[in-house]
Amino acid sequence: MRCVIARFPFDLVKSEVEHMMSGITPEPATGVCVAIGRRSYPVKQVGQVITRQDRRDFTADEVTRALTRLGFTCHAAPAAPAAPVLGTSL
Q: What is the pTM of this model?
């Protein structure tokens, strides 16, 4: 499927994206994430791998739109657990 990311056209196929991301360890989730296989990757990390561009060159929305069109499920990052407040007594 032809997708435009950072003003550059890319011909992406779901199986190729899955292959490119295999063996890559997901970074800590921040912002929007995408489920690829059994792993959840930040969309900016996936965008950097599939486009070979710097993350500052494209937006998370562009990558999310392209990945959704390919059939991937994008979702918000899980909320971080609340840290206890130090110095307070119960």
A: 0.81
